[in-house]
Amino acid sequence: MVIVDELGAPKTTAAAPAPGEARRRIWSIVAGSTGNLVEWYDFYVYAFTALYFAPAFFPKGDQTAQLLNTAGVFAAGFLMRPIGGWFFGRYADRHGRKAAMLLSVLMMCGGSLLVACLPTYAAIGAVAPLGLLAARLAQGFSVGGEYGTSATYLSEVATSGRRGFLASFQYVTLIGGQLTASLALFGLQQVLSEGELRAWGWRIPFVLGALLALSALFLRRTLQETAPAAERHELAGTMRALARHWRAVAVVLGLTAGGSLSFYTFTTYMQKYLVNTAHMSPRTATGVMTWVLFAYMLMQPLFGLLSDRIGRRACLIAFGALSALLTVPLLTALAGVQNPVAAFALVLAALAIASLYTSISGLFKAELFPIEVRALGVGLSYAVANALFGGSAEYVALWFKQAGHEPWFYWYVTAMSAVALATALSMRDLKRHGTLDQRP
């Protein structure tokens, strides 16, 4: 099979894998995914423990005001993602995916350790929230690079014809990071009192995250490089090269705006929504979200397989349409839910829709860009949209609630889902126009 580039020049497809290659690919997916899990655990444990440490760093105001402050710091971490996406994307395209993935997990370890050791407002005053902000900025920078490089790496190492299934493990481990964070808190809630969790117990998950990051660093040292030096173009990882693929950047921006907003609404924000709006106890809400995330994680390979059958574009169109139609009814129902089983069913229904996007989130982006600018294209364009719409989800939702117009947030999520739908309808079929089998 011959593939042509934008100028009509022929490009040959990748050679058939050598004996033993399948085993090496599987190990690379396992090792790369494990590191991804740890990175996202470290990043999300902040969101799940915020209910307990918010008064320690922002003692003034009611619960909504304290959560609004912690959500602002959470969103600030996302603002570092475009910088991290640019830096690590350029680094991965010029020096290899493996080197970038090692550096990102090392930086995440440092940020998690800083949060674990940070004194409270009562001890050092205004320096405490500033220190919290600095740690989140470092973690945001790190995870901004993690998404692009891990999505690129897992997409490149996956075999043609099964890429949807294999690349879905990026979100299996991303959700697994959230689930592990939720489980860590749920476990602590069983052995520590409410007062102990607020006093010092919330620090334990951050210490655990730093230790896990060191383990991930060891695993990633064994990764097989997917972009050897011989394949790196002289313009690899440059903004000049990326500018040639502005249509692909626009597609990533449009789909990520709706996809990330929906994802963060029904995952990280949902715990607070169940407590602050549906008036569940923190322990009940954590239990509901733990089981939801477990089921959601198991969905990803199934939806990845679906994309191998019907195509990425069809899955993305279905996501945009269903999300635009059902977000308002689902969030309205969740606002008045009292039964944990009903809450589980409603949140899982929303995340089943989101799975049409998340299971192939990294893959369809990687299929849009050629190898010499793939990590930069995936990482930077995703990080920009994710910072603007995903990272701000909690802050916007809480702002609307504090202003007395909480339902307006439901329509905001709906509008961005409609943007994702329009973008999916305008994109090309990646089965015929994908770039993962091309070489520079």
Polypeptide structure, described:
With 440 residues, this protein is mainly alpha-helical. The protein has one domain (25-224, 236-433): MFS general substrate transporter like domains (Growth Hormone, Chain: A). Helices cover 77% and strands 1% of the residues. It has helices spanning 21-57, 63-79, 81-95, 97-117, 121-124, 127-157, 163-167, 169-191, 194-199, 204-220, 239-243, 246-265, 268-276, 282-310, 312-335, 340-358, 361-366, 374-390, 393-402, 407-426, 430-433; strands at 2-4, 10-12. The protein has a two-stranded antiparallel sheet with strand order 1-2. α1 (21-57) runs antiparallel to α10, α3 runs antiparallel to α18 and α12 (246-265) runs antiparallel to α20. The radius of gyration is 21 Å and the shape is globular. The model is unreliable at 1-16 (pLDDT under 50).
Provide key terms for this protein:
21 helices, mainly alpha, 1% strand, two-stranded antiparallel sheet, 440 residues, single chain, disordered N terminus, Growth Hormone, Chain: A, 2 strands
In brief, what are we looking at here?
The protein has 440 residues and is mainly alpha-helical. It has one domain: Up-down Bundle (Growth Hormone, Chain: A), CATH 1.20.1250.20. 77% of the residues lie in helices and 1% in strands.
Oligomer: single chain
Distance separating the two termini: 16 Å
The count of helical stretches stands at: 21
Approximate helicity band: over 70%
Reading side by side through the largest sheet, how are the strands ordered? 1-2
Largest sheet: 2 strands, antiparallel
What would you call the structural class?
mainly alpha
Q: What CATH architecture label applies?
A: Up-down Bundle
The CATH class designation is: Mainly Alpha
Low-pLDDT sequence parts = 1-16
Return Rg in Å.
21 Å
Q: CATH topology, what is it called?
A: Growth Hormone, Chain: A
Shape: globular
Mean model confidence by pLDDT? 86
Output the helix-strand order: EEHHHHHHHHHHHHHHHHHHHHH
Number of strands: 2
Range of strand content: under 5%
How many structurally independent domains?
1
Give the name of the CATH superfamily: MFS general substrate transporter like domains
